Amino acid sequence: MAADLTATEKSRNVKYYINSAVCLIIMFGFGYLPPIDPITVLGMQILGIFLGMVYGWIFVGIAWPSLAGLIALMQTGYMTAGEVIKSSFGEANVVLMFFIFIFCGTFAHYGLSRIIAVWSITRKMVLGRPWVFTFVFLMVMAFLGGVTSATPTIVIGWSLAYVISEQCGFKKGDSYPLILIFGTAFVAQIGDCIIPFKSIPLLVMGVYESLAGHSIPLGPYMLIVILATVLCIIVYLLGAKMIFKPDMSSLIDLDSRSLVGDDGIKMNRVQKVVLFFLVMLMVMMLLPGFFPNSTFFAIAFLKKIGSTGICILLVMLMCLIRIDGAPIIDFKKMVGNVEWNSILLLAAAIPVANAMSNEASGFPAALKAIINPLATNTSAFVFVLLIGLAATLITNVMTNGPVGMILMAAVFAATQSVGMNPTAAVVTVVMCVHISVLFPSGSSTAALINGNEWIGTRRLWKIGPMACISAWLVISIVAGIFGL
């Protein structure tokens, strides 16, 4: 047995080093290939760095391929080492992502996610009405996916779903727990992009911003995402009802005490303060977008410090304010909630995207030549549908961050070619790269779904494609209506 484990470990190590070597060869060697017009020598070097990083992110990991990409970019002569560092770790969106992780980690640290979830699904208007209960449950999971992240939301949601299943007498293989448990993970993944300052939205929109030189307005972004998320849940439940016809009669008599517990739902003082700061974060970040021409001193102040400054300000206040002798945020402790892989991914992606967007690389001309026929021979709405379909299909087999980055180049080329409003296409890509639930390689959420015994591979392929296709259509249509 020990010998088999040793052999397996050796095989993994060999595979790891082979993939690492391929990653480095692509990254540092691709630039020596003859350039293909209109791509220049610099363009080939940048393309090699990008392809090498993508290969590394898929087959090796996030950390060192991202750092290697920055080293490779320094060697091209396109930017000095200082300029590379400034445009990566010094970039505003990278700093914003760091502080957002601190903020969201604090929200989860004080147990607010479970309190909000249990409170929402134990209201009188919900209990005794199975489909309303299920809709509210999934809406809460989407919201918690937005204010924290998908993985902790799934853990909380599944723990509640198991209690509900036990209380109602459901067992593995029954239709309703499948709908609830799969739906929890699916909508938590979609909900992860409700707040535009999370890792993947920041990464994808940050790449577009670096290419286009302007950002996507947050008001239309949140309108599209929230409406599309609500409709995705409704359509998912309608589809599940038609396909599985679950028996939900036992839910009518569900005892809320089994979810609430003996102590009931109570929020202490620090939890109330943290919830207040969450509301303040969203309000302060959205206000400048709703009042772009206002000269009121508070709005002017928020415009000057921007989204990154707002997040830093609130984190600073939470470090300053003490409750019961302790700061709300213990910064050293909360740093442990930072997803450094996401930080490194964004820090490496932005300077490479900037380099690819430079006319000297030849990529803008090449992308326009490829995209222009598609963009000009179809309507803007059809283009949004197609780019959403591409994001949905590819992200089920590749990590969603790199997929979004790649598609941003196509979106930018299309908007340059035909002058299309980019909001619909960008938001569609941001949402559709979150629909990665069929293969474990798509995301950590997909890995959790594939490993859940209450779902199972056979039942996953009965419910998963329906959920993905319906979500893609809903997202694309909503984005096309409100974003074009």
Automatic annotation (TrEMBL):
Keyword Protease: no
Protein location: Membrane
GO CC list: plasma membrane
Pfam families the UniProt entry points to: CitMHS
Record has Membrane as a keyword: yes
Keyword annotations of the record: Membrane, Transmembrane, Transmembrane helix, Transport
Entry's Gene Ontology molecular function annotations: transmembrane transporter activity
Major subcellular location class: membrane
UniProt name for this protein: Sodium-dependent dicarboxylate transporter 2/3/5
TM region(s), chain numbering: 16-34, 46-73, 94-119, 131-164, 176-198, 218-239, 273-291, 297-323, 335-354, 374-394, 401-419, 425-448, 460-482
Membrane topology: Multi-pass membrane protein
Family, similarity comment: Belongs to the SLC13A/DASS transporter (TC 2.A.47) family. NADC subfamily.
InterPro entries: Cit_transptr-like_dom
PANTHER family noted in UniProt: SOLUTE CARRIER FAMILY 13 MEMBER, SOLUTE CARRIER FAMILY 13 MEMBER 2
Domain annotation Citrate transporter-like: ranges: 58-429
